[in-house]
Design goal:
This protein is 46% helix and 9% strand. The protein is mainly α. The protein binds one RNA strand of 75 nucleotides through helix 4, strand 4, strand 6, strand 7 and helix 6.
RNA sequence: GCAGCGUUCGUAUAGCGGUUAGUACACCGCCCUUUCACGGCGGGUGCACGGGUUCGAUUCCCGUACGCUGUACCA
């Protein structure tokens, strides 16, 4: 039987980076086994539903580089793929459970439930639905239940969890996991608004959609026994489970907004490359045991194995992500990145530049920065003449005799027909040798007058990209203002 | 509180009974050099603790501690 997995997000907002990793692992696992990865939208909570979220989630998955074999947009033979369009299915399945005694009607109001929990907490008990005393099918009896139902009294359907025995299942990541049935709550399966809860919808859909492996976050581990009970009640075969370690904040809590960026959009907008982000999160919680860090999607697919997924949560190391982004930055063809730079440049008040020029600037500066978007600030002088000059740098390298040392270079540069890195290098070396001065007494002043900053790429390379005319203009102005 | 899960340098991890405990990021130092960066070389720090099992435990078992997640008519 071929592998079928699903990514099942709730459209409640932007796609969380942890969600992206869950989607990625599902995708990698499916593709590794030549199976299918489907997208299912779990929009059963009407109170948290966000209209634009579904599109945002799909867009981000697409950006990240994985496409689903089935889903709400592309369809498929197991659709519909939005749970809100499958409500009848859940209702009929809930009825099956009622009929075979695995579930029951409950009529308790939110207030009654709240009171019950308060009582339990006061008594030092674990909050848990007590079906022996609440208002439900078992305490009310069939006749009264049917009467209330006929009258249209709001009701929910709850899972009848046995009071004794153990529920065990095996998890690919964690091995054998055992829960005592008495610790498991009589979970609501069908809400009084007619929508299913996650538990029912999830199990019904996973079965109907012939999902073979449920790969999801560790936060679902405690509710897995409920799902097992459901599979048994329906008489269905269980899928294999794999609960992924959580992505953590530096303080080890579940990765959240308070500690910084958590949405895929945030990373995209910051300028992270999709490939770098994917590479990085793939390695948060899983490692192919190779002494290397850079893997293409194809390579990730080839080596992915759920058995090698780690058990412990992984702290998200932003610094390392940046490093990885730079690795990709340096590996790309500058010409491909040039349009992106032009796009970023639009938000600055710089004169327009050509694609060719943008590519040259990228090539010049990318070893020193992590993002394309850093270029306009880190290398502002590549687009506009410096208006301010680093005071500290100037104090260190612009001495009384400097002007006299530099001035002759204007003429030398002017006569140059080849304004290349090499040519500039040769000519300046010849000059310093003849004048018996150290190269640094020339290089630093040049950098100062041309860029205004003390950090940047190699000086001659920078000059080459800037071009003869521009370099000479900057030198002349500076020389005039700094005799 | 209860339940489950987890614990190798600061971080991500390799390790699957015997290793000088490896790698990457970060950090520090040196080299290269035209500043920064890149690159090269080197350094420091780590198996949570206590019991077993074993000739031998980072590795297997049991506790303890700590952490995390869950405990909703949310997912």
């Amino acid at each position: 039987m071929s592998v079928r997995v699903r990514f099942a997000p709730s459209p409640t907002g932007f796609l969380h980076i942890g969600g992206l990793r869950t989607a990625l692992y599902n995708y990698l696992f499916a593709k590794h086994h030549g199976g299918e990865c489907i997208l299912r939208i779990e929009d059963t909570d009407q109170t948290r539903y966000v209209e634009s979220a579904e599109k945002a989630i799909i867009d981000m998955c697409q950006w990240a580089g994985f496409d689903f074999d089935e889903g709400p947009e592309q369809g498929g033979k197991f659709g519909p793929y939005r749970q809100s369009e499958r409500t009848e299915l859940y209702q009929t399945h809930a009825s099956i459970l009622i009929e075979n005694g695995a579930a029951y009607y409950a009529f308790d109001t939110a207030e009654e439930l709240e009171k019950m929990r308060e009582r339990q907490q006061k008594a030092g008990l674990a909050p848990k639905y007590d079906r022996t005393i609440m208002r439900n099918q078992t305490t009310l009896g069939e006749e009264e239940t049917n009467r209330l139902l006929a009258e249209g009294e709001p009701s929910a359907i709850r899972l009848k969890v046995p009071h004794t025995g153990d529920i065990r299942f095996s998890d690919i990541v964690r091995g054998e996991v055992v829960f005592a049935a008495r610790d498991i709550d009589d979970q609501v399966l069908l809400k009084s608004d007619g929508y299913p809860t996650y538990h029912l919808a999830n199990v019904v859909d996973d079965h109907l959609m012939e999902i073979t492996h449920v790969i999801r976050g560790e936060e679902w581990l405690p509710s897995t026994p409920k799902h097992c009970l459901l599979y048994e009640a329906f008489g269905w075969e269980k899928p294999k489970f794999a609960h992924l370690p959580l992505l953590l904040n530096p303080d080890k809590s579940k990765m959240s907004k308070r500690h910084g960026d958590v949405f895929v959009e945030d990373f995209k907008n910051k300028g992270f490359f999709a490939e770098a982000l994917v590479n990085f999160i793939a390695l948060c919680g899983w490692n192919p045991s190779a002494d290397r860090e850079i893997f293409s999607m194809k390579e990730l697919i080839e080596s992915f194995a759920l058995e090698k997924v780690n058990k412990a949560g992984a702290i998200f190391d932003y610094k390392k992500l940046e490093w990885m982004n730079n690795q990709y930055f340096r590996s790309y063809d500058p010409a491909v990145l040039a349009p992106e730079l032009l796009e970023v440049l639009k938000t600055y008040d710089y004169p327009t530049v050509s694609l060719e020029y943008a590519a040259q600037v990228i090539k010049l500066l990318r070893e020193r920065i992590s993002f394309v978007a850093d270029i306009p600030t880190f290398g502002d002088y590549m687009f506009v003449r410096p208006t301010s000059f680093d005071e500290e740098y100037k104090g260190k390298h612009w001495k009384p005799e400097t002007n006299a040392n530099i001035a002759p270079l204007v003429g030398i540069f002017e006569s140059l027909s080849d304004f290349s890195n090499q040519s500039l290098h040769d000519v300046v070396h010849a000059y310093t040798t003849e004048k018996q001065i150290a190269l640094k007494f020339i290089i630093h002043p040049l950098r100062l007058m041309i860029t205004g900053k003390q950090v940047g790429a190699g000086m001659f390379e920078t000059m080459e990209v800037l071009g003869k005319e521009e370099v000479l203009a900057r030198m002349k102005v500076f020389l005039e203002n700094n005799p």
